[in-house]
Specification:
This protein is mainly α. It is 65% helix and 0% strand.
Length: 223
């Protein structure tokens, strides 16, 4: 139980690293939470500092999820499961999922920034791409297409998140592809998708009211 608790805490702390705040202060000496939408995430950095720094933050946020799944979860090998694993996954994969979720929670409610972080999209993507690569790549494709056409990163994030469970259902039941742990993964990714929609609820309101900011692919902005 001590090892599992350590994995959860360390993954949470990795996810809590406020990359958007760090990058904005390093680049312009500003607190990104005082600009744009006030959100400490890659989308707001893209809006305020330009797409290059926004992409950098998104990649760093995704890396947090991957680090939790690839490295922190490996602490499991010095311990054992403190409870029976009733899922179809092997013990290590199950621990990876726990570590990834902890990192996403850390990103959304970061201890290093008053428990107000980003919206968890990139960190969740970094976690899930290590576990279900094909479905996440499909979702990333949807995200890119939607953002390119609409220039709403929030809309791309929401539709990308919803795409993951839809892609799983389509591949498993229509294409008859075998997805290991499908019956366990599907409720999990549906839960992640709902969490993404919840964290973007204000963006949804702004999109329907016509007040949501669009990103620009122009050069770095002046602050």
């Amino acid at each position: 139980m001590i090892i599992l608790a350590l994995i959860i805490i360390l993954s949470y702390l990795v996810g809590s690293i406020p990359t958007a705040i760090i990058v904005s202060k390093a680049v312009k000496g500003i607190d990104i939470r005082n600009h744009g939408s006030g959100n400490a995430g890659g989308t707001n950095v893209m809006r305020v500092l330009g797409w290059k720094y926004g992409i950098l933050v998104i990649l760093l946020d995704a890396l947090k999820g991957s680090v939790a799944v690839i490295f922190v979860a490996r602490l499991f090998y010095i311990g054992e499961m403190p409870f029976e694993n009733a899922t179809p996954f092997d013990d290590f994969t199950f621990v990876q999922i726990i570590a990834g979720i902890s990192a996403v929670v850390g990103h959304i409610w970061t201890v290093f920034a008053g428990f107000k972080g980003g919206k968890g999209i990139a960190t969740a993507m970094g976690m899930l791409i290590m576990i279900m690569t094909i479905d996440i790549l499909i979702a990333i494709g949807v995200f890119i297409i939607v953002v390119t056409i609409s220039r709403y990163v929030s809309l791309g994030s929401i539709l990308g998140a919803i795409t993951v469970p839809l892609a799983m259902v389509f591949r498993e039941n229509i294409l008859h592809a075998h997805i290991p742990g499908y019956n366990t993964l599907l409720p999990f990714v549906i839960g992640v998708a709902l969490l993404v929609v919840f964290t973007h609820r204000k963006n949804v309101v702004r999109i329907f009211s016509g007040n949501e900011n669009k990103i620009s692919f122009s050069k770095e902005k002046k602050i």
